[in-house]
Amino acid sequence: MAAPRIAIVGGGIAGASLAYMLAVERGVAPLLLEREAHCGSHATGRSAALYMPSYGPPTVRAATRASGAFYREPPAGFAAQPLLAPRGALHLALRDDPHAEPSLRALRARLQAAGSPARELDAAAVLALCPVLRPQQVLGGLLEAEALDMDVDAILQGFLRGARRAGAELHTDSAVLEARRADGRWRLRTAHASFDADIVVDAAGAWADALGALAGATPIGLQPKRRSAFLFDPPSDVAGWRDWPTLIDLAERFYVKPDAGCLLGSPANADPAEPHDVQPEEIDIASGIWAIEQATTLHIRRPRATWAGLRSFVADGEPVVGFDPNLPGWFWLAGQGGYGIQSAPGLARAAAALLLDGTLGAAWAAAGLRAEAIAPGRG
Q1: 6-80+151-222+316-374 — its CATH code?
Q2: d(CA 72, CA 69)
Q3: Whole-model pTM?
Q4: 2-31 residue pLDDT tens
Q5: Of all helices (H) and strands (E), which one includes residue 177?
């Protein structure tokens, strides 16, 4: 049988990684349509860029673990530099958080159950790792050595470049204006052209439900949520800050990590928003600065840069991957939350299996990823 003509709508990390897996690993070269002038303009390009296998709900963690080998040893020619670099994540139990100790115990138990190496630290050990933390604030912490920095641009470009070399067709500035099914096929219309496909993959990120509505799909209940971040100057009188682990408040009031010769901070917010080119709110940045200054001796006079991105979730926090049960030829690859980059190779391979084989198979089940847990319309 001839391979189906597959159109992927969305050129962020989800669409790009699926295009790569289909074209390079499965020999089915798709069409990739991106609404913006450049792929990865929204959530992908605004990521904090941390690979953390403990981060996210169960299926996300399984997909992240399944992505590790690809990122550690990518195929020849995928990228000119390593995709991962040592960083570590230090989960902080702080005295002004009434739930700090039970949260620390729960995280330790979850990591141990997953076989993830993590080391519990007392207050003195935490302060030795990061001397700008305020001693009177620190109860202890948990160091997760498996957390790694990611080169997001190299990853995205590697997927796009590999997909194109294997025959995938990429069109930017191509927002889908109409999606219509007739005679067993889809017709997608943009401002510049029309495209026919047997299967449409909705990988439109925060716009996934809006795209589905064009086609008559029942919404999956996607809720984009704004997360803001900022860069600021490192302390001039403290050595070794480039080697700090990412500092993560267990109460999710802030995180800080070395990034691009600066420090990156965030209030770790998740504020509901409509899909758009989101910008940071002043209150987001102010609350992030306040939380960081309460926990550390860092003084943030003025951020060097600020930005925001949309992390899109459905109710249970797991991604939505699979054929729509009521709309023939419509396939969802959406709802990756804030975990899309770390889990991309694993989730894209799973999506390719569901697209072409109709099943995930026993190997995926053994890895902890089940089709019913990510299926559209579940529960």
Answers
A1: 3.50.50.60
A2: 5
A3: 0.96
A4: 678 999 999 999 999 999 999 999 999 999
A5: none
